[in-house]
Amino acid sequence: MPGQMSFDALKRAVAEGGIDTVLVCLIDMQGRLMGKRFVAQHFVDSAWEETHCCNYLLATDLEMATPDGYASTSWRAGYGDYVMKPDLDTIRPVPWLDGTALVLCDLLDHHSHDPVPHAPRQVLKTQVARAEAMGLTPVMATELEFFLFEKSLREIAASGFRDLTPISAYNEDYNIFQTTKEEAVMRPLRNHLWAAGIPVENSKGEAEAGQEELNIKYGPALLAADYHTIAKHATKEIAWAQGHAATFLPKWHKDRVGSAAHVHQSLWKDGRNAFFEKGADHGMSGLMRQYVAGQIRYAADLTVFLAPYVNSYKRFVKGTFAPTKTVWSVDNRTAGFRLCGENTPGVRIECRIAGSDINPYLALAALLAAGLRGIEEKLDLAPPTRGDIYESADVPEIPRTLREATETLRASAMLRAAMGDFVVDHYTRAAEVEQEAFDMAVTDWELARGFERA
pTM for this one? Predict the structure, then answer.
């Protein structure tokens, strides 16, 4: 893949003056890149071995506040350090920033040098290791949906987030003329990501004004999450550079459709898709049927990782292509899980529950945990649900609020066994913090509804 760099290639680029800055980044709980900008020569001389960060970076909310209730760190414990250990296999240039390269880090305990269990990359690595112990390689891809706006983030913030005009005026789903108007953002996004070693396949208009979708080729699960994180970061930076704003908020307006991050999944064995069985119903192997059955049985347990914020649940609306039920179907976009590539070696399951605000490491880890449990329990898969699934009665629904999903996560014996109590308790607390912040807020809706009449 063009763009990816070995450590030796980075050293040569630094010596030749092509790279003068290295972004050394961890992934926080919200799926954002956090870290430091290193003088490139210092990085290749010594900092490539390790650097450090405050351990509060895995115990904050979206606002970077430091709420209490985390066992991992606190004011009482003094907010110590983590070791940021660069994964040298992740080095790549950042072509949209002059003279810049990037490396992702794993987080280690400052004292024991053991992996930090609740670090998002480590949470996913743990589930990948479970699959590998079964002789299987998880292969995944995510779709990135987002909205572009006429004005910049600074201008929109100054307006109190009220002057929200999408970059285009009408539904641009697959519309070439409409998306041509957005090429000032989308063309450099596609090409810069490709040059950075992210295998972008295409972009397209989505089913709303100003809504775009970016599609990246499938890969091993950890790499797929890395691709997603860097692409999301690049989208925001490139839109900013062009004077526009990009948002991955799942539901920015009650009358507009939401944004998703559909997750495509398969398990491979000996270089082949183990989900495919020629001549089987829909081309689905027994292994695939068990995996999908696990995801359906435990869908509610996973929902906090697929919809992590209060706003996430505003997206689950009938008739908007967002699912409301946790059933599977054959190429039916009204279901929570959609079979794609029926009867072909590319057969896979697409989870449509995940929103554009996911932390991809946590979402992919949770989906893997449920699918692997389905294999371990040899679960039977019910027949596919057909027709308009929005109207289907007596089928399980996606939790409708973060509060409901949080309680399901707290009680999940499956995820506690797969991820460990410490990890589940940590992210349960993160969901509680989000809910507590919303419960304290006074919204525009409340003011307009009750200011005079209450």
Answer: 0.96
